[in-house]
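Quarterly update from the structural biology core.
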Amino acid sequence: MTHQPAPTTDTFNHRMTAFGTDEDFLAAALPFLTEALTTPGEPPPVAIAAPEKLNLLRDALANDAKNITLIPHTDWYTGSAANAVAQAAAYLTTHAAAGGRIHLLMEPVWNGRPGRSPRETAEWIRYEALANLLFAPFATTALCAYDTRTAGFALVDAARRTHPDTGVYEPPARIAAELDAVPLPPPPADAHPLAHPDPDAVRQQARARGLAPADAELFTESVTAAAADLAPITGTLLWGEAPACVCELRSTRRVDDPLAGFAPPPTADLDPDQGLWFTRQVCAYVDIRADGEGSTVRIQYA
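Predicted structure, tokenized:
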């Protein structure tokens, strides 16, 4: 599908292109980068993509390649969806012009990530949907590049619902509610209960389940950070083996904000006092399900 350029606005301009050949990739990417280079008052555009696509861009752009920041996507997408939020927010703060003005061509790492499982796909679609809220105040123009050869058609179809320029866009809150309507699998029968998410008890369980000391400490800090945001905690369960140790917290507090733990704090320093933001940055998965009696928050380290 060839991308149709849209005018730059003073709010987040979140676009999408899907392609199945190198030629179609260039047909979408080159006009976008040319648009960026001719937009007054913007810093150099950024192309974040697979190394082979960066090579295609270098060859096609020739001398203009020196005016574009090229970043291998494995250097940008290094962890969870929440990590991608943090990476983008930090880059805008450091490199964008006033109001967040910059053009970003963005191809995430598809192989072995989104599309590998329903869980990974849901996590990525949540990120794409929430980006429309998280970056709404910024005059950033982003073109998300979906290669059907690696991303797959099911993921592409789901992603279209999260991009306003596709004709099938749906509000982020609706997408998040859809994802949260999928019930979590029940805890295993041998899940270990704790009366309280006491750090010493969580740390002991993490070590017993095979986490190395440093990882056990991070997992413990993540659980206690979430517990502080969710207090009062009425139940705690732990299960799993390293590295996929899991802690489930039950709270009487109903958490139904789809941005809970996704909105970056004022400071870039990562600290357990940042609650669910810290938990999402450290752990691979944080699932929140609200119901009539409160919320269940399930934290998986890796």
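Strands lie at 13-19, 46-49, 69-72, 102-106, 140-147, 192-194, 233-239, 246-251, 285-291, 294-300.
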